[in-house]
Give the backbone structure.
Amino acid sequence: MTDNLELWKLVGKTDPRFVKSGTGKGYSYSAIAPYYQMMLATEQFGPYGKAWGLFNTRFTFIPDTDMVLFECVFKFPEGEFPISNVIKYKGIGQNNKEDDDFAKKVETDTITKSLSRLGFNNDVFLGKFDDSRYVDDLNREINQSEFFNQHQELIELVKNGVNAGPTDPLWIESSLKWYLAGEEVQKGLWVAPTKGGPFSTEERKIIKSVEWYNAMYDSLDEQLINEVITQSEKYIENQDYSELYTIWSELSALEKQIIKYHMPETLKQLVHNALTEQARLMIQHKKGKS
């Protein structure tokens, strides 16, 4: 069965960062950034002017007024429809001067009106932006989505590792990376699948399992820590401080995990020594350059 509201659902939610609120004569409004709308339409239909846009445009100056009638046909991949608009082209300000940008303004406004007929940003036109709770929920949803995108590589690694099973080397690698990410990242990604979280219910069970924890624990030994220090020396030598900072952050996160999960003191000392050695290498390198 065809869902006639499919496009409405796809393009209905509006990023609050691209909405400007204002007041007119006795009313309030929410204005959507035109280029944001064009970006959404381009995402759905393709480049403007090829598969969608305003065609057969015509301007008619209305006699004995300061108004211009704008008429055109709005086309999109599944159809087209005529649409018109009016704008004041002169009488702007105290000097009653003409508005040189009236054509651009009325075309932009007509694009907004046309896209609204197709359901674009319908939450604004339905008045949902008048509800602050709706806007707050939207902001949380957008921030969550951006956080997931920022950590997409970790999400994919963990999902692949979990599904690979305990006998696969990827299981150990993904477990270690998960714990190295630190509590803040883990908490940010630990969103229920019913609320758009990246991990399924079954994947979440495995990530919380003893087997998953043990995979991380078993992968840590003195050889691994020494490899980290060796890699740090290479980064310092190549002045690749961004990678060095990544290792430093991972080691710091790992130290917190060791304390949290009451791991053996010997393991805690290994990581602490690695952090100390990293600091020594950085100071030594800095002195060598001065």
